[in-house]
């Protein structure tokens, strides 16, 4: 199940707050708890969330133009 942009942003914000507070255990919106072993692991998780947010935020094409040619 893919997360919405809002869910991704909320998860990133919660992880960022936990990291800034020095907390390594985070509970997500569904109640699942994740404990990170190190700050580096949290940094990787934040980078992954940032990447997913960037992908979800990218503009999607609204029009597709096809070009065809007759092979001779």
From TrEMBL:
Protein's name in the database: GpW protein
Q: Which species is this record about?
A: Primorskyibacter flagellatus
């Amino acid at each position: 199940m893919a997360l919405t942009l809002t869910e991704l942003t909320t998860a990133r914000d919660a992880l960022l707050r936990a990291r800034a507070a020095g907390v390594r255990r985070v509970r997500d919106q569904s109640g699942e708890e994740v404990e990170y072993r190190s700050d580096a692991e949290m940094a990787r998780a934040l980078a992954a969330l940032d990447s997913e947010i960037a992908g979800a935020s990218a503009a999607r094409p609204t029009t597709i133009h096809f070009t065809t040619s007759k092979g001779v």
